[in-house]
Amino acid sequence: MFATIKFLHFFSLMLGATAGFGNMAVALHVKRAGIPAPASLTAMRPFFSKLGLGAVGLIWLTGIALYLMHYTSVDLGIAFHLKLLVAALLFAGVVVINRMGAKAAAAGMPPPPALAKLGLATTALTVIAVALAVYVFS
Ligand code: HEM
User: Fold this and answer.
1) Is the CB–ligand 1 distance for residue 81 below 6 Å?
2) How confident is the model over 77-92, as a mean pLDDT?
3) Which pTM does this prediction carry?
């Protein structure tokens, strides 16, 4: 059971990274296109945003399960608490990305430029969380 949940923890990390780097690739290609980007390209944004939301939700659920199964009596130290802080910021960032994207789409507007920056920040947070996790559990 523990191994299955750990697999899902890694799987959700893989999905989250895909969403982050995918959104970055779309933003880059839209910017490079210069002309209004083809709908088929911009349609990938909400897909990656929702994928990211699902992934960060699953990484929290599996993380809590892993913690409750093996670590409730273990002091995992400040690095683990930093990892949780980074994971919480990531969750908040992904929620904001989804809300801003949905709001812009509902208004028939292109996503605000801040969205690409937020996407970059959430991808960086994912990488930092991985580094902290490997530091704590290796
Ligand atoms: C962005 C968020 C997260 C990322 C990228 C992430 C990544 C990872 C990685 C890469 C490992 C394996 C470390 C290793 O074995 O060397 C791991 C293990 C673990 N993570 Fe996370 N994690 C995240 C969020 C969380 C959260 C929110 C929790 C708890 C609430 C959590 C709890 C755990 C636990 C308990 C383990 C140890 C599993 C074991 O004993 O092998 N993680 N995480």
Assistant:
1) no
2) 97
3) 0.91
